[in-house]
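Q: Given only this backbone (213 positions), what sequence would you predict?
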């Protein structure tokens, strides 16, 4: 009789690797450092965007309010002149020439008073307003409405077809007119950004609703 050889079964155990407590602590430390650094970077980016948009919104909001103020006064005006304002004197554009300039004189009645003058000071790029009885001086040029306006002219008198008028006072001839305003702005994109500018434009047209022909 033959005896079968004995069969021996050996178990194989796969070695299991694991992190030590020190390695886990180091990994958590690195993860926290990167997380905090990322949060700080995001906050700095958001602050820069906030400063960038705040300056633009403040400038745009003030200019929009100024343009709306002028439009409301023109709508209720009896007649409007376009011209220039220098040395505390308003000079209408010459009759027969294009009615355009850096200033408006808005009359609320058929008399020469009261009136309001809106004028751009090219030296400072600021838009001011004064009323009859006020004197514009270097120390007190008037009420500041807007800043950083760079274009000259910035006011036009047009007819119903959009053509620039050549008559100083078309209302005297029984014709209404439309005042076109175009303001081109240039300002620093952010504080202390001496080489970075932002450019944008406001423009509108407005017509007196019930002029006295």
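A: Predicted residues:
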């Amino acid at each position: 009789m033959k005896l079968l050889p004995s069969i021996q079964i050996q178990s194989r155990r796969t070695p299991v690797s694991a992190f030590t407590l020190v390695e886990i602590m180091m990994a958590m430390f690195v993860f926290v450092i990167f997380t905090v650094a990322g949060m700080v970077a995001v906050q700095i980016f958001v602050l820069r965007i906030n400063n960038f948009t705040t300056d633009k919104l403040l400038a745009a909001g003030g200019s929009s309010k100024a343009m709306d103020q002028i439009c409301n006064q023109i709508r209720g005006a009896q007649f409007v002149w376009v011209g220039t304002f220098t040395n505390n004197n308003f000079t209408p554009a010459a009759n027969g020439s294009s009615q355009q300039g850096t200033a408006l004189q808005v009359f609320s009645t058929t008399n020469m008073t009261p009136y309001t003058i809106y004028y751009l000071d090219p030296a400072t790029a600021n838009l001011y307003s004064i009323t009859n009885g006020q004197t514009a001086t270097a120390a007190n040029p008037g009420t500041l409405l807007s800043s950083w306006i760079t274009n000259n002219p910035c006011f036009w008198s047009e007819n119903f077809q959009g053509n620039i008028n050549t008559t100083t006072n078309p209302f005297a001839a029984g014709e209404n007119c439309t005042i076109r305003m175009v303001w081109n702005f240039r300002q620093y994109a952010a504080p202390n950004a001496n080489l970075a500018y932002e450019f944008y434009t406001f423009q509108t047209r407005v017509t007196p609703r019930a002029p006295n022909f």
